[in-house]
Amino acid sequence: xxxxxxxxxxxxxxxxxxTAQTDPMTTLRAAAEQGVPAAxxxxxxxxxxxxxxxxxxxxxxxxxxxxxxxxSAEAANRLGRMHHAGLGVPQDLPRAIALLxxxxxxxxxxxxxxxxLVLESVGADDAxxxxxxxxxxxxxxxxxHVDAAVSLGVLLQDGRGVEKDPTAAADLYxxxxxxxHxxxxxxxxxxxxxxxxxxxxYAEAARMFQAAAEQGLPEALTNLGVLYENGFGVPQNxxxxxxxxxxxxxxxxxRAGDAGPIYDPRLAPPPTDAAGLKALEKAAxxxxxxxxxxxxWLLLSxxxxxxxxxxxxxxxxxxxxxxxHxxxxxxxxxxxxxGTGLPQDYxxxxxxxxxxxxxxxxxxAEISALxxxxxxxxxxxEAQARAxxxxxxxxxxx
Length: 398
What we know:
The chain is mainly α. Among the domains are: 177-251, Alpha Horseshoe (Serine Threonine Protein Phosphatase 5, Tetratricopeptide repeat); 274-393, Tetratricopeptide repeat domain (Serine Threonine Protein Phosphatase 5, Tetratricopeptide repeat, Alpha Horseshoe), CATH 1.25.40. 70% of the residues lie in helices and 0% in strands. The protein is built from 22 helices and no strands. The chain has helices at 4-15, 24-33, 37-49, 57-69, 73-85, 93-104, 109-121, 127-142, 146-158, 166-178, 182-194, 202-213, 218-230, 238-250, 254-258, 274-285, 289-301, 307-322, 326-338, 346-358, 364-372, 377-393. Helix 16 (274-285) crosses helix 17 (289-301), helix 17 (289-301) runs antiparallel to helix 18 and helix 20 (346-358) runs antiparallel to helix 21. 46% of the residues are buried. Keywords: Hydrolase, Signal. This is Putative beta-lactamase HcpC. It comes from Maliponia aquimaris. Its EC number is 3.5.2.6. Residues 1-20 form the signal peptide.
């Protein structure tokens, strides 16, 4: 690797205050290490989000544990969720439930809902856990938690953990749907299609699916497509149905960057004239990171994609990323995720996203969250460990 990451780290360091005494992160670390609970919690949050530090769930868990021991309900909640997912810590369901129970004792609706979600996930093998989940969802819903209201609606609709009551489910969905909750809108639409708990009404179902589809919910796009294909509640339209099916099938892919490479908004658009392109190519071949990025972006944006150009674009994007260009790091991550011009590798993709976030790429957290859903906890943990190892190898203080 070229020494670019070190250059990036130096640039970031120079952008910070010159003295350790005035460096916010140094002050925060010192307070956390002295056992100040609020500092322990804030440092844990920073490590979990990758805010001002490399994202590292294992380090976040360490600080959440310390803050939880000091009585922080938020820390107990977040650490419990990590143990449930196995992110940064071993997956441990009893430990997760114990921590989430401790947090839920605070009565905060979010924590009641989080505990209910975990209990519902084990409810297939434990009727008491499912009944407790329903109770917790109800408590959280009564406190105004919309997600909990929708989850309770699902249990009522299916008769899991509670007596089956589709009418009550519809009432819960309706309230959440009016507040713009996409999942509630989709679920209420399905009840209107089936005439379950409400009078059958395809036109109202279409209205609900349309509202959820406008928020990008894949299931709603597909359900709306079914109505258009069959002419239920809407004019029959095979072309529109096919487009809705296509959009629904994409799911998170476009939002995750699959629609094409991401351009650096700080830069002027790349040249399109022959002379400008020739100068850009010359600068890229000479190792200019910005030129490498722009040239890579042009090659990867070309349609239709041609394998040789795609490989060239991937090589240039990697060079720009290794030189410390954060948007190039994010694009390189997407190439690894998709296996475009490079062997598909989710671990390396996530590693480069962690580095991109620390390099200042604003969209890294959102993209990372979307791709994390497709990864195992072990893959996410390995990616973060690799990012830290690479960062450290470049002589960067964490």
